[in-house]
Design brief:
The chain has 505 residues and is of the alpha/beta class. The protein has 2 domains: 11-265 and 479-485, Aldehyde Dehydrogenase, Chain A, domain 1; 270-461, 3-Layer(aba) Sandwich (Aldehyde Dehydrogenase, Chain A, domain 2). It is 37% helix and 18% strand. It is built from 14 helices and 20 strands. It has helices at residues 11-23, 64-99, 101-112, 117-130, 168-181, 195-213, 227-235, 248-255, 279-290, 311-320, 328-338, 361-368, 407-418, 432-442; strands at residues 60-61, 140-144, 147-155, 158-162, 185-189, 219-222, 241-245, 261-264, 270-273, 303-307, 324-325, 339-342, 349-352, 379-382, 398-404, 424-428, 446-449, 469-470, 476-477, 484-492. Strands 11-14-15-10-9-16-17 form a 7-stranded parallel sheet, sandwiched between helices. The protein has a 6-stranded parallel sheet with strand order 1-6-5-4-7-8, sandwiched between helices. α6 (195-213) links the parallel β5 (185-189) and β6. α1 packs across α6 (195-213), α2 (64-99) crosses α4 (117-130) and α5 (168-181) packs parallel to α6.
């Protein structure tokens, strides 16, 4: 994949232009959409919905109230557009995610200053190609002696979403596809450090959808997000469901909300390597997952527990696969710089240093006092189980390797380090009993055997992809069905095509 930085418009200029347009008068109600190649599926909502249409605003708003009103208007239009309208809408989001991935991925890389450019681009492409859509929305039918029952999956309405800086536009993209496929609209309060690329992506999505089907603002965004706007979104009476993707603080806030919440919380995925593993394959897999986007993925390998019998062989396999091994002194130096204290009093705790979070492996190597070689993607070293890199979700491409006497100790240490988040765990082993023991003890949403963590999202493994993995609330890897509610319609004693007990002579 190419890594050259293409030219792109100044992000700040784009956002200032969008905000300036918001302050001008909105188009009058009933004004038609721009001319497109396809006929609109639904007209602008008239009558009791609103006297002023938000059409032409393309999803960017200065207040939560306006954003929710626009999303509500769009929701009623989407209801009339049916499944066909949903499908056409998400096709535009997918197309833009793929076609504009280089430009938008580069914007995100330069704005957030974390991760790796080629992976920012790749994430948008993959979500455009593989995020689940309307094909997940199917009905269940029960037919018998007493009639017919149909269970359909109905939308909630307007969803309020909080997205992280680690995957600003990709999270919005994946969520938008699933939420719209389920018949909903969404208002996003993005992370402030990724708000500009989020606004530009949302603007492009809505403009294309509006040109095609005549519905604007399926995805709305607060242009200047703050803690206050996040709180207003949580508590807005027009918001029917909350979806949060982020760290512990925002997850706790969502769980305390009075609304139904889908919460994709933190993870600290451990890896176990036992004496039966293919060590070279394990090393390649660990590097692939842990180095991806400089370890920003919540599913990425964060700490590795290796059985003593193969510990040195495993470290040698990591070096053969291209990772850079740090000495004990260099590990200590890096630990002191990379993990810092935050908070006050009883709330004081260890966190990753912002200056090193999501930075390249070469940056970490230099911080440790090591000389990085060209192209190094991951640094690693042996640590004790109580080294801060083990319990802290560090989100940087350094992996601590902990020596364990046997697989039982490795599994139990892995469980301790995962903190009961029940997010993701990985094992490299050919011992089915070890796999089973670890699976039962950690009880994680994603459990990957003999592959990289990303295989758990269908990248090198089977299944579908989503960047919102709801562990605290139990929905798991989200799909369009996650954002729907069951609705049952029952018809009694009719449509009994095969007859009934009453007709038996």
């Amino acid at each position: 994949m190419a890594t050259a930085t293409p030219s792109c418009p100044d992000i700040a200029t784009i956002v200032r232009q969008v905000i300036a347009e918001l302050r001008s008068a909105a188009p009058p109600a009933g004004s038609g959409p721009p001319t497109g190649t396809s006929a609109p599926l639904a007209p602008t909502v008239a009558g009791p919905v609103a006297s002023t249409s938000f059409a032409g605003r393309h999803g960017i708003f200065t207040s939560v109230d306006e954003a929710v009103s626009a999303a509500t208007e769009a929701f009623h239009q989407l209801e009339r557009a049916g499944i066909a309208g949903r499908k056409r809408a998400i096709e535009h989001i997918r197309r833009i995610s793929i076609d504009d991935s280089v430009e938008l991925g580069t914007m995100e890389f330069h704005e957030t200053r974390i991760g790796r450019l080629e992976h920012k681009i790749e994430k948008l492409k993959v979500l455009g190609e593989r995020s689940p859509g309307v094909e997940f929305i199917t009905s269940e039918v029960f037919s018998g002696d007493h009639g017919l029952a149909v269970i359909e999956h109905a939308p909630f309405g307007v969803i309020g979403a909080i997205t992280p800086v680690t995957h600003s536009l990709p999270t919005i993209t994946g969520n938008a596809v699933s939420m719209i496929a389920g018949g909903n609209t969404v208002v996003v309060n993005p992370h402030p450090s990724g708000k500009k690329v989020a606004a530009e992506g949302v603007r492009r999505f809505n403009a294309a959808i509006h040109r095609d089907i005549g519905i604007d603002n399926l995805v709305c965004l607060v242009a200047e997000p703050t803690l206050e706007t996040a709180g207003a979104l949580f508590n807005h009476r027009g918001v029917k469901l909350i979806c949060v993707t982020g760290g512990p603080a925002v997850a706790r806030a969502a769980l305390q909300s009075s609304k139904r919440a889908i919460v994709a919380g933190p993870g600290n995925p451990p890896v176990v390597v036992d004496q039966t593993a293919d060590l070279d394959r394990a090393a390649r897999s660990i590097i692939q997952g842990a180095a991806y986007d400089n370890n920003l993925l919540c599913i990425a390998e964060k700490q590795v527990f290796v059985v003593a019998e193969v510990f040195e062989k495993m470290l040698a396999a990591m070096e053969r696969a291209g990772a850079l091994r740090l000495t004990a002194g260099q590990v200590d130096t890096l630990t002191g710089k990379a993990i810092v204290m935050a908070g006050e009093g009883a709330h004081r705790h260890q966190v990753p240093c912002k200056d090193l979070l999501g930075q390249d492996a070469a940056v970490l190597a230099r911080a440790a006092g090591a000389a990085p070689r060209d192209g190094v993607e991951l640094v690693f070293g042996e640590t004790a189980a109580d080294n801060p890199f083990v319990p802290v979700e560090q989100m940087m491409p350094f992996l601590p390797f902990v020596r364990c006497k046997d697989v039982d100790e490795a599994i139990h240490r892995a469980a301790d380090s995962e903190h009961g988040f029940r997010h993701t765990a990985i094992i490299h082993s050919h011992d089915v009993r070890a796999m089973t023991k670890m699976g039962r003890l950690l009880d994680t949403t994603l459990f990957v055997k003999n592959g990289p963590s990303v295989a758990g999202l269908g990248l090198g493994g089977e299944g579908y992809i989503s960047f919102s993995i709801a562990t605290p609330t139990g929905e798991g890897v989200t799909t369009p069905l996650t954002f729907t509610r069951q609705r049952r319609c029952t018809l009694v004693d009719d449509l009994r095509i095969l007859g009934s007990a009453d007709s038996i002579g």
